[in-house]
Amino acid sequence: MTRYLVRRLVTFVLVVFVISVGAFYLIHLLPGDPAAVILGTGDSPANRTKLYAQLGLNKPIYEQYVVWIKNVLHGNLGTSFISETSVWGTIRAAIPIDLEIMFISQILAFAAAVPLAMRSARRPDGWLDRVLSAGSFTLLSIPSFIAIVLLVLFVAIDLGVPHTGVSSYVSLTSDWVVNLESLALPSIVLAVGSFVVYFRVLRSDLIATLQEEFITMARSKGLSQRRILWRHALRPSSVSVLGAAGVNIGGLLAGGFIVQYLLDIPGLGYTLIQAIGLSDYLVVQGIVLVVSVGVVLINFFFDMVINLVDPRIRRE
Amino acid sequence: MSDSSPLLEVTDLCTTFTTPTGPVAAVSGVSFTLNHDETLGIVGESGSGKTVLSRTVMGLQPRRNVVVTGSSRLNGVELVGASEAEKRRVWGLEVAMIFQDPMTSLNPVMRIGKQIDEILRVRRGLSRSAARDRAIELLELVGIPSPTQRYREYPGALSGGMRQRVVIAAALAGSPQLLMADEPTTGLDVTIQAQILNLLDDLRARLRMSVVLVTHDLGVVATRTSRLVVMYAGRVVEVGSTRDLFARHRMPYTRALLEGSPRLSNPAHTRLVTIPGRPPNLAQLPAGCSFAPRCAYATAQCHVERPELQPADGLGHYFACWNPLPTPTGVS
């Protein structure tokens, strides 16, 4: 386990390094003088001088990277020349919203997917399995931006759930009821997409596991169906679904952008789209970096969970 | 339950699988009884229905696409047609099964100890620590060194022979009266096979259990069973005491099986006799005796009319053959 952890950590550091180079280079990929690109509408001789000093723009590019990465590692992503505020401050204010939406949506998705996948796998091609499979496939084919409109139209308005955010959004610590209300809609929309993936992956793995001889052995001990499913079949069937969760949550960040934008929820996605609109490239760069590292971290986390769940992987 | 009534009574048991290409009779009209403290061997080639029979006897056959008729009574309780809940009461505590391949019959992601003491906690209501102590005792009983450490390990850390010992310990945990052993040594190295069989034999005597030993290897059953059931294509073709079947078998198939297994009494380099052809397709059985196409003694009658079991000289010795082998004289 320790060797595996060390190996994974080395890979993790390498991947983060590559990401940081990519995020750094983003500014230079755009045509024209990077200073003009960064300053955007805030371009003035005074700002230009400040920026050259801040980023070391007259030095060779690798030295610029060293200057930049040192700042990043100290939590300094620069100061936006458009909003005149710290980029890291902007990002830090948005992150809790993304984390909360992600957390709630994943809890909801798993809470629905695990028991339903078990029900389905018990009788593959039974009526319940057919209904759930067809239903989940239908859900899968609805894009989140359509789902959100439908939910607002037919559910949120009737129930009085807030469906536009910026004005009504409050943090979890100041008023959790209002906070959960305002994040309910985006969490549900994202949960639906995740649920479909988890349900389908877990269902097929459970069906395969239930054919295994050790399940027959568990039956021969006179254990209840419920116990066999939860204690004997779930764990060996969960490697794929955990892997899928790792990948899916990464994709969820991107999917979340649309949902946040449509519902006016001031998370990272909303902030990113605004920054793009304002050509606020330092904020864009910061968000790209933070989100990428976040995705890598999430995958790293799920790799560790898979490792704990299945001792067979540990030995390899 | 008095010892005079049989522990297991199987009557006219049939297991038919429903397949897309039609029904397949894996077990047809099998009857036998097993007394307390007795070991019964079920022998036959691969595909003769032994495994399906052993599972059907305890009601463990898959629940879908299968039709079971006849009767299988354990301690007088009918298991054919019983609900899962009824069978669950019997499973583990009255009858337990040892599976063929210990590489697949243990849960790879569950600690060994838990797989053994689970039944004690769930079915017998033992406390966590009492169940743990008993599981370690059982690991010791089946000859696993340093059982306290092994208790916490996953099956992947053990060799095949050790895993089969764990499977046996798990089967013994519920103190069953009947142990169904389905080819318990087929998946193991030859050197380990004898160890496991001797262990089973020893445990049976010590714990006063009855054992149904399913195998394709007559060498395995020769000294370890009191009675044998010979199966071919899902039917019993000969049944009797082990002694009678070795010395006075009447069915050519039984002889073929005997000649196909190596014996120490033969001189070195004796060629083993193989049975020509292969077991029939259960979905398309011939009209007469299923063995007729491969039988050196087959006559025209054998191909059209199926022989029923008929009594031989020995007590409880029956065979199904139109042209039985003569009883050897001077053999006792």
Describe the protein's architecture and organization.
The complex is a heterodimer of chains A (316) and B (332). Chain A is built from 14 helices and no strands. Chain A is an all-alpha fold. Chain A has 2 domains: 2-73, no CATH class; 92-309, MetI-like (MetI-like fold, Orthogonal Bundle), CATH 1.10.3720.10. Chain A starts with a helix and ends with a helix. In chain A, 33% of the residues are buried. Helix content of chain B is 31%, strand content 22%. Chain B has a domain at 226-325. In chain B, helix 4 crosses helix 5 (128-141) and helix 7 runs parallel beside helix 8 (190-207). Chain B has 12 helices and 12 strands. The mean pLDDT of chain B is 89. With 332 residues, chain B is an alpha/beta fold. An 8-stranded mixed sheet of chain B has the order 6-7-8-3-9-10-12-11, with helices on both faces. A 4-stranded antiparallel sheet of chain B has the order 2-1-4-5. The longest helix of chain B has 18 residues, at 190-207. Chain B is globular, with a radius of gyration of 21 Å. Chain B has helices at residues 50-57, 84-90, 102-105, 112-122, 128-141, 147-150, 160-172, 190-207, 218-222, 242-247, 252-259, 300-304, and strands at 8-19, 22-34, 39-43, 66-74, 77-78, 95-98, 178-182, 210-215, 227-232, 235-241, 310-311, 318-319. The chains are: A mainly alpha (316), B alpha/beta (332).
